[in-house]
């Protein structure tokens, strides 16, 4: 019997029964609605919680990768975290982008190469370029080169004091692996003196390094090359090796930010006053002692230069005929000869002349003629304040780096001797677009100067001959001279790295 019939029988009054039935139905409906509402609310809460969690996960992910993707994803959008600080967003937009490094070159390492450079700044600079190319060819790891501290100038500067070492390493990582130091185990061996050292043979081609040097690296794991100047041939090398030498020289060997900044300051001061000429007056004590050139020196100075030459055992030539060397063009021009030549070339007597050199031997006495002819002579010591040069004093290579930067920027560069700085700067100026570099023909010039001084040649003829002789010696495009079996007499690669030059419309000339 159904509940409805039972309810009717049990109730005294039908209305009461109907009321009870109504209340019963209403309770069930309310209970059902409450259940439905409860389940719906639970679902909504779960949905909201899930959505919130997903949003926060996304936020944290964006924050985690913000350094790489954030700037591109959020560029131009207002900050959600601190909308009031708009100035920070403006400042961040001016921060330079990180330098994109070349990918690392992966290769089987044949060992480690340590190198000790010798000579002045530019002699060491060229050697470093050669050693990078050799390390690349042999598939070895190069340790940051050690610079010369035993030369005449005894400069204690380390590589990182002159060059931007981090840029040097990172800019070449697609060519060769370069480390600041040996791995600990090998470093300990070197500290104990267990290392094989030798000076490579000068002007060698790559077969020498492949056949004789590489087996030594594989055998000893670490090889130390000493006296690394001019150890790679000028010519006959693969194009990729020549281009790598240029890449190191013109891109990777960047001076430290402090040197670069001071160089820019010196150039700016010169530019404010107009065009300027850089005269690399290579008339310094070490140059004269080494070459045996003493023209114009008194007897006391000649004796002093001779003593210095004998004091350095690696300067092999001891007994030197100074006048004979001068006639052959193997001596730097004296300051007096330089004054005559500049005047004969038609150099404006009021132009700024920056003397790129160390202390001139003979001091003011030897500079008097040049100063009387060209009044606007400046040096880094007179151009810059003492406080600017405070940290560069007694560091000849760092001072030479300043001269190098100013020389690159000059309107005309004139070296009085074709030493390492003259050659490397000439080559760098060629790379920058064949900027005017007057390469003096010293052998011809000293003959002309002597004839003018003894009265057998008038000024007009003297000036004409000087100009005519140098009309094709201005840094214009030319073929590098190749002399098989006589590499020392060839044109130096770093003076004319023709494989790396963007040739202009001007034709190449040969001489």
UniProtKB/TrEMBL annotation:
GO molecular function per UniProt: glycosyltransferase activity
Membrane-spanning segments: 45-65
Keywords: Carbohydrate metabolism, Fucose metabolism, Glycoprotein, Glycosyltransferase, Membrane, Signal-anchor, Transferase, Transmembrane, Transmembrane helix
GO biological process assignments: fucose metabolic process
Pathways per UniProt: Glycan metabolism
Membrane topology of this protein: Single-pass type II membrane protein
Listed GO CC annotations: membrane
Coiled coil: none
Predominant location category: membrane
Pfam families recorded: O-FucT
InterPro entries for the chain: FucosylTrfase_pln (IPR024709), GDP-Fuc_O-FucTrfase (IPR019378)
Subcellular location(s) of the protein: Membrane
PANTHER family registered for this protein in UniProt: OS02G0726500 PROTEIN-RELATED, RHAMNOGALACTURONAN I RHAMNOSYLTRANSFERASE 1
Record family assignment: Belongs to the glycosyltransferase GT106 family.
Protein name stated in the entry: O-fucosyltransferase family protein
Source species: Eucalyptus globulus
């Amino acid at each position: 019997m159904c509940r409805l019939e039972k309810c009717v029988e049990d109730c005294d009054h039908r209305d009461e029964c109907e009321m009870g039935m109504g209340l019963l139905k209403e309770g069930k409906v309310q209970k059902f609605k409450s259940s439905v509402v409860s389940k719906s609310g639970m679902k909504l809460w779960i949905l909201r919680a899930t959505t919130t969690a997903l949003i926060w996960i996304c936020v944290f992910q964006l924050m985690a990768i913000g350094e790489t993707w954030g700037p591109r994803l959020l560029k131009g959008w207002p900050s959600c975290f601190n909308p009031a600080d708009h100035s920070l967003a403006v400042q961040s937009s001016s921060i330079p982008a990180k330098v994109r490094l070349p990918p690392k070159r992966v290769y089987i390492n044949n060992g480690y190469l340590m190198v000790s450079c010798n000579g002045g700044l530019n002699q060491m600079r060229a050697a470093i370029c050669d050693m990078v190319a050799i390390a690349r060819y042999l598939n070895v790891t190069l340790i940051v080169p050690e610079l010369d501290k035993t030369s005449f100038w005894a400069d204690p500067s380390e590589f990182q004091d002159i060059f931007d070492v981090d840029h040097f390493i990172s800019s070449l990582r697609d060519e060769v692996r370069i480390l600041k130091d040996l791995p600990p185990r090998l470093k300990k061996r070197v500290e104990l003196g267990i290392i094989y050292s030798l000076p490579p043979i000068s002007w060698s081609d790559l077969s020498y390094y492949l056949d004789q040097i590489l087996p030594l690296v594989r055998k000893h794991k670490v090889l130390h090359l000493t006296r690394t100047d001019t150890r790679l041939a000028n010519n006959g090398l693969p194009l990729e090796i020549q281009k790598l030498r240029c890449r190191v020289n013109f891109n990777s060997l960047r001076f430290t930010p402090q040197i670069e900044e001071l160089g820019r300051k010196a150039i700016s001061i010169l530019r404010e006053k107009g065009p300027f000429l850089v005269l690399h007056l290579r008339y310094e004590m070490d140059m004269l002692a080494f070459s045996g050139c003493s023209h114009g020196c008194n007897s006391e100075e000649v004796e002093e230069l001779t003593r210095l030459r004998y004091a350095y055992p690696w300067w092999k030539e001891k007994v030197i005929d100074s006048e004979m060397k001068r006639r052959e063009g193997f001596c730097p021009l004296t300051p007096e000869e330089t004054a005559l030549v500049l005047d004969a070339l038609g150099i404006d007597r009021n132009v700024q002349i920056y003397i790129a050199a160390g202390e001139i031997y003979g001091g003011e006495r030897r500079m008097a003629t040049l100063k009387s002819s060209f009044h606007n002579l400046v040096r880094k010591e007179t151009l810059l304040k003492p406080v600017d040069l405070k940290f560069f004093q007694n560091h000849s290579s760092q001072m030479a780096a300043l001269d190098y930067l100013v020389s690159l920027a000059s309107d005309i560069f004139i070296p009085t001797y074709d030493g390492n700085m003259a050659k490397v700067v000439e080559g760098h100026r060629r790379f920058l677009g064949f900027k005017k570099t007057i390469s003096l023909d010293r052998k011809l010039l000293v003959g002309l100067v002597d004839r003018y001084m003894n009265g057998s040649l008038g000024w007009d003829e003297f000036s004409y001959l000087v100009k005519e002789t140098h009309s094709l010696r201005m840094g214009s495009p030319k073929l590098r001279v190749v002399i098989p079996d006589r590499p020392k007499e060839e044109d130096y690669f770093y003076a004319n790295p023709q494989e790396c030059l963007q040739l202009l419309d001007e034709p190449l000339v040969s001489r």
